[in-house]
What does this fold into?
Amino acid sequence: MASMKMMTDPITPDRAPLHGSTEGRPAVPAVGRSVDEELERLQERHYQAVVPTILVVLLALFEWFRWWYPSQGEPLIFSLFALVAAGYTGWHLLASRRTLRSLRLARDEEWRMGLVLARLREQGFRVFHEVPGPEGPVDHVLIGPPGLFVLHQPALRPAAPEARGVAYSGADLRLDTDGATSQPLVLVKAQATWLTELVARQCPLPVAVRSIVVFPGWRVQSSVPVVQQEVWVLNDHSLSVVLSQEPVRLDPDAVLDIAAALNTYLKS
It folds into this structure.
């Protein structure tokens, strides 16, 4: 199979490349871009709530000024409007503080992941984001000298740094924030099976796909050594370390051929 040249610009937190962009089909979003967009929408809603309140308060002050000096102003009516508007705005801002903080924490996790993927690309990996699949989009696919990897980054409730802990027994995960679950493990294994079959149909090279669940910025404790894990459960730091210790399984031509096969699928 003829090799296809892939994009090699490094990913950065504020400017990550897009993959799978074809005519008539939207490009796959960059790492962390959706969180930034949600932050922008929340800030716009803040402005929409604050600006009318300021205008009503100014009108009320103007009416009080007219009342203080002989005139026919109605300060009580405008003051009532100002109190209602100020109360609503205050409630809106307080209610959205938690959402805003959660979005910022989620954005920080996405940026950490983006930095790790940038370093891996510098080490010869080809990186794809949000690859469409039957089990939903695959968060990240890595193709490099150690092999082919499916990365799943669970969508968790953002938590403060001291509450970001996960314990892995080899069969399930226990999160400090959400309790025990095995859903991320089941999902990433299904995605790895699908990707193995996809690559086998489009590329003659026999390649096994490794499943990884990654928690950027979280503390991960495992009772099972990594070499014995069917699914690796890692944070962003240990992901780089573990991959750097893996033996070389694919030569550069094989990496390019598999990447070309996946790129052909994205364009189909």
Summary: Residues 75-122 form the longest helix (48 residues).
